[in-house]
Amino acid sequence: MAQEDVFKKVVAHCKEYGFVFPSSDIYDGLGAVYDYGQMGVELKNNIKNYWWQSMVLLHDNIVGIDSAIFMHPTIWKASGHVDAFNDPLIDNRDSKKRYRADVLIEEQIAKYEEKMEKEAAKAAKRFGESFDRELFMQTNPKVLAEKQKRDALHERFAAAMNAMNLDELRQIIVDEEIVCPISGTRNWTEVRQFNLMFSTEMGSTADGAMKVYLRPETAQGIFVNYLNVQKTGRMRIPFGIAQIGKAFRNEIVARQFIFRMREFEQMEMQFFVRPGSELEWFGKWKELRLAWHKALGFGDASYRYHDHEKLAHYANAATDIEFKMPFGFKEVEGIHSRTNFDLSQHEKFSGKNIKYFDPETNESYVPYVIETSIGVDRMFLSVMCASYCEEVLENGESRVVLRLPAALAPVKLAVLPLVKKDGLPEKAREIMNQLKFSFNCYYEEKDSIGKRYRRMDAIGTPYCVTVDHQTLEDGMVTLRERDTMEQRRVAITDLESIIRDNVSITSLLKKLS
Ligand code: ATP
Q1: SS3 for 180?
Q2: What is the mean pLDDT of the chain?
Q3: Domain 402-512 belongs to what topology?
Q4: Of 23, 259, 285, 462, which has fewest CB within 10 angstroms of its CB?
Q5: Which of 85, 260, 286, 292 to mutate to test the pocket of ligand 1 (most atoms within 8 A of CB)?
């Protein structure tokens, strides 16, 4: 199946099975805002739990907080967001569509890469098993020509972004002959800066309302609480503070479903370290975070690091963990060595001393910070894309199955009476009532058993049990596994022990420690 088709199908599937709905659906939606449905919220909560527990359960030097969305407006002055949280935007005069100039250029870079990949794929087909990909990529003239174009563009783009040279960004778009995908024309406006923060007013306008922002990241809530937590929690460096919460960005171009939203959720952890040790910790967190992703079992080839060449002015190292989405490798998580920039800025703007006294060295200093920052929604999208699967079965029928890691699946077990009579529903309810304390169970009695299995496959339920007439006599049920579709008879009394360990978040966490 073409990758674009996979993505379209995932989007449709999310709506059809109650994972994600457009916000305000009956009013035709609201741009880049989405609601999670009955299945989506379970999957999302499981992702959050997996992250939260991997941080605060597995590390005795990491604690959590939950800070408010509204914060003192000076915080966003201090952090640099008021002055510099901008994207370069450009409009196409014919289609009246607005784009991020940097994204248009990045897509152009990706096009050169696609061309290189296409050449490689063609050659792989031609040469079969004897194909040496590495040699081909290094020597084939067509590949080298594309590579040269890509590298030249990349260099020019990085220089323009570093200097935030808006004229040069526009010139690149013109020189590369980039067209608007809607109108097909090159009738571009100038490139302008656009601040991504939403603002609103606090207090009534009569007594001089204060302009406040909806936070564009959760990190600042951690920074301004760092000393509160350090003192009351008697934390010693190195230590971390984790937080999950909503963030808001007025994204210029909001496409690709929940990949880029205006209201989204972040899971961020700021790790406070001694100055000078930050790059060592940066390396450690890079590894730990990749291991967290890989433990989900989607295959190591689905991930790659993207080390930043262009560093934010406050960072001395940064990398993204990218996931292979149907529309290419995309950032899911950022890991940044933020130096002591944020804390020093808050010290300056608040006028308060927020230095840490290190009892081991007898020194006071502003700690350095390693940040791990991941979007819940992007993670959700990556999990859905990696799990969505259409299969043709041996009997020629096809099925859609969400191969979700069992620990993330919204429903762990479906309990299905074979028929709606003869005491089978009652028996099934009895089983539900025993197991519902251990994991999320789902009862369903409508339609044929085959149809019910298909519905459970489509929402990624790892196990189904069928209660039949025999069950009433011997206390055994048919246990069916989602991925293999294997069925076996097991005793009702064994169900909990068979299922619980496989579906618990603990099963994932154990892979990490
Ligand atoms: P991008 O370059 O894609 O705009 P970013 O580098 O600005 O992302 P960060 O500020 O590093 O992103 O935010 C950390 C994480 O938050 C990202 O890796 C992503 O998973 C998530 N995120 C950021 N912006 C959005 C958004 N608009 N919608 C959904 N998730 C987002």
Answers
A1: coil
A2: 95
A3: Rossmann fold (3.40.50)
A4: 23
A5: 260
